[in-house]
Each structure stands twice: as C-alpha cells, then as structure tokens.
Write a structure and sequence with these properties.
- The chain is mainly α and about 240 residues long.
- The chain has 2 domains: about 120 residues, no CATH class; about 80 residues.
- The chain has 11 helices and no strands.
C-alpha cells in the first residue's frame, strides 16, 4: 500500500446515500463511531435514515441526535440492571465516551454551542477507572477557548494536547491532528499581538507541511498546504514581495 493510499483510524467515508448529502463526514464519523461493533444496528440505522432523505438538514441532525440519546438511555438502563448495579461510564467508559462525543459533535453542527461546551467539559473532567483521559475533548476545547478569546487558557491547553499528539504512536508532529493545533497556536500568537512568535510558529508549521509528501501522511499534503495558505493570508502573515 502506498503512503497516499494509507487509511488511518480517523478516516471515514460517509455513506454515499441521499440522507448524507448535506451532512458532513465529521458528523457521520462521530455518529457511526458510537456503534463500532454493531453491524446489525448500523444496517438498521442506514435503512431508517434513508426513509428521512427528503427532510431539511436541521431535521436530519435532530434524528441523529435522537438516535444517539436513545442509545445512551438504553445503555445506561442496561448498566443499571446489572448485578451489582452500575452506570455506563463505570461499566464501559469508552462506549460512554463515544456516545457523548457523537452527541456534542451533532449539537455543534446544530449551533447549540453552550450545550456542546458543557458536554466537552464533562468529558474532560471524567476519567475511566484506570485513569484514562479524553484528550480528544481537550483538543475540541482548545478551539472553543480561542473562539471565546480566552487565549491564555487556550495556549496552555494547546501545548498539553500537542505534547500528547506528538508522542502518540498513531499521530506524531506531522499528523493532521497535530498540525491543526499548530495552526491554532499561530492564530493565538497573532490574536495576542505576538507577531514574531506567530511568524516563528508559522515557519515551523510550514516545514512540517512541506515534508508531508515524503511521509506516511502524504495523502493530506495538498489539503494541509491549502489550510496553511489560508492561515497565512487570514492572519496577515504574507511576506511582502521584494
């Protein structure tokens, strides 16, 4: 398999059906990610969703949210019926986390950002019984903090998340996740008036993006170049022509 064709765990091809035409792949990935080992449920869901093809986007999103919330209620009820009684977060932390992750992604797309933030905060504060943290929630919170202009908090969290991503065996400094945080750090420096820091960070980011074509993340190279250019222009970091 060539580097360009390599498939990563976070890659997702949303169903090529009419229901998903106006819904993004991120929402699709989060939704189906809540049912990772249930092929029967996924097939049933696909049939159910296709009967709602003609609905407006907002109504489709609400259907997805209703399905997720019902699944969460069902799983919590099953956990409570166990002997001894438990909760989903105690009995299956990862299933609990996947469901709540999908719920906040859908709520974000609905524009319900206060609810999205509360869910992310809950995920950040909750660890599994063996101390596992939801660092993906921290990744999402970085962007929320920047949107709210809470730049000092955002920068601290960005560096924590970046350290995790750079040392993660499936990611590393050139992964899309790490590059997204590096773009955010450039933006933070610009927004706080630290132009020299922004330019230095931009140079480091550019070096990583320029090297993508030769590494395992080669298939993201063109997209990352476009986002780098957009970042440069939007933040006024374009070098003047000589």
């Amino acid at each position: 398999m060539t580097a360009a064709a390599q498939k990563f765990p976070w890659d997702f091809d949303k169903p090529k059906t009419a229901f998903w035409d106006d819904i993004g792949w991120k929402e699709g990935r989060a939704f189906f990610g809540a049912f990772p080992d249930d092929a029967c449920a996924e097939s049933t869901l696909a049939d159910k969703l296709e009967s709602s093809t003609d609905l407006p986007t907002d109504a489709k999103l609400q259907i997805l949210l209703d399905i997720l919330q019902q699944r969460l209620r069902d799983e919590e009820a099953l956990a409570a019926d166990r002997v001894p009684p438990s909760s989903l977060v105690e009995s299956d932390y990862r299933a609990w986390r996947r469901l709540w992750h999908a719920i906040y992604v859908i709520k974000s797309h609905q524009g319900r950002h206060d609810e999205e933030e509360r869910i992310i905060e809950m995920l950040m504060e909750t660890q599994s019984s063996d101390g596992e943290k939801d660092l993906s929630a921290h990744h999402s919170m970085c962007f929320i903090l920047v949107d709210k202009k809470r730049f000092e908090e955002a920068e601290v969290m960005c560096w924590d998340v970046l350290n995790w991503l750079d040392n993660h065996p499936m990611c590393g400094p050139s992964s899309p996740q790490s590059l997204s945080i590096r773009r955010l750090l450039v933006k933070i420096a610009c927004q706080t008036g630290s132009r020299d820091t922004a330019k230095r960070r931009l140079g480091e980011l550019k070096a990583l993006v320029d090297g993508l074509a030769k590494g395992k993340f080669a298939k993201y190279a063109e997209e990352e170049k476009e986002m780098l250019l957009d970042l440069t222009i939007e933040n006024g970091l374009v070098e003047p022509a000589l």
